[in-house]
Write a structure and sequence with these properties.
Chain lengths: 125, 232
């Protein structure tokens, strides 16, 4: 293959790869219309996101410190509630002091009175 | 064998629940006999007020008096059976079971006398004797047995409250350092009062269930006050 022939081939290939004139015009216009990127410009969305991250981090750190220092000990509280649990106390108290024993005595006394009335009715004419 | 506090508590609770359930049975098991007695009693009153006269009236009245008398015996036998059922679950009850067997026999003998052919006067005489026996013999014996059962009931509620007191004490010791001094002082005062009421309940005659129950109520009211204080 001659040198001239090779150059001719490359020229035709370049022509085939070149973008169309309309595309070139449109792309240039689009690029020029885009706002310039500046990392130091204030963006509300970014500010809120970074603040949230910071708050979360600080919150988590405080919680860890709180647990380490001993301000919150679930085991201790549960132990205390086990014997002074209001519901359990009310239930036990109701069971223990239900006046069943007294009711039994009153019931017997009433029964005895009623039986005496019945016997009197058998006796009287 | 030494039982752990939790086992003692469990045994106490089971005992208390079973005793409460047997006491509940009392009124239930007597109900059919009482209903029958109520019916015959009303019939007897109606017959007395009726316009019947002469031998017919006496015949009806004797018959209704016999029925009413029989129903009184049925109620008494149901009462005895009731007490026997309660005693089966308790210890050292042979003496009481023997007494109840004697009373049962008396009622059965009395029934055979009542159901004979009797004149109205004889039936009334029998009823008079029965009334005296019931007040002088039957009632004191039955009251003694019922008192014995109630004394055991009282002992059990005292054990239950004492066990709760011990648990609270143990829990308070564990968290003493975590509780502010002012709150701790109030809690210990309430605990002392609960202990005093419990001691008072122990010293009371167990045959006086009303007083024992009042003291135990006091104990639990202090516990509940403590519970509220701890929550604050």
């Amino acid at each position: 293959m001659s040198r001239d022939h090779l150059l001719e081939n490359l020229r035709s290939l370049k022509k085939a790869l070149e973008p169309d004139a309309n595309f070139l015009r449109y792309s240039k216009k689009f690029i020029l219309a885009a706002p310039p990127h500046d990392p130091y410009v204030f963006h509300t969305k970014n500010f809120l996101f970074h603040s949230f991250k910071l708050a979360m981090g600080l919150g988590l750190m405080s919680l860890v410190l709180f647990i380490i220092v001993g301000g919150f000990n679930p085991k201790k509280n549960n132990d205390l509630l086990a014997s002074l649990n209001e519901k359990a106390l009310l239930k036990e108290s109701a069971n223990a002091t239900v006046n069943i024993a007294l009711d039994e005595i009153r019931y017997r006394q009433q029964l005895e009175k009623n039986i005496a009335i019945v016997i009197d009715e058998i006796i009287t004419q | 064998m030494k039982l752990s506090p939790s086992k003692i508590r469990l045994i106490g609770l089971i005992g208390l629940v079973s005793l409460i359930s047997t006491l509940f049975v009392s009124a239930q098991s007597l109900r059919p006999a009482l209903q029958d007695l109520n019916q015959t009693f009303n019939l007897l009153i109606a017959a007395k007020k009726s316009a019947l006269t002469g031998p017919d009236k006496e015949k009806v009245e004797v018959s209704l008096r016999q029925s009413t008398f029989n129903d009184v015996i049925d109620v008494s036998l149901a009462e005895i059976e009731n007490l026997k059922n309660k005693l089966w679950d308790l210890a050292d009850t042979d003496k009481y079971l023997e007494t109840l067997a004697e009373l049962e026999k008396f009622y059965k003998d009395l029934r055979s006398q009542i159901n004979q052919e009797l004149a109205l006067e004889d039936l009334i005489k029998l009823a008079r004797e029965f009334k005296i026996w019931r007040e002088a013999v039957y009632q004191p014996k039955v009251d003694e047995i019922a008192g014995f059962i109630l004394a055991i009931y009282n002992q059990r509620i005292i054990v239950l409250a004492a066990s709760r007191l011990e648990r609270i004490k143990a829990d308070l010791e564990k968290v003493e350092e975590a509780i502010p001094a002012s709150k701790w002082s109030r809690l210990t005062k309430l605990l002392e009062r609960a202990e005093e009421s419990l001691e008072a309940a122990k010293k009371l005659d167990v045959k006086e269930p009303a007083f024992v129950i009042e003291k135990i109520k006091e104990v639990y009211s202090y516990f509940l006050e403590m519970s509220k204080l701890v929550k604050k």
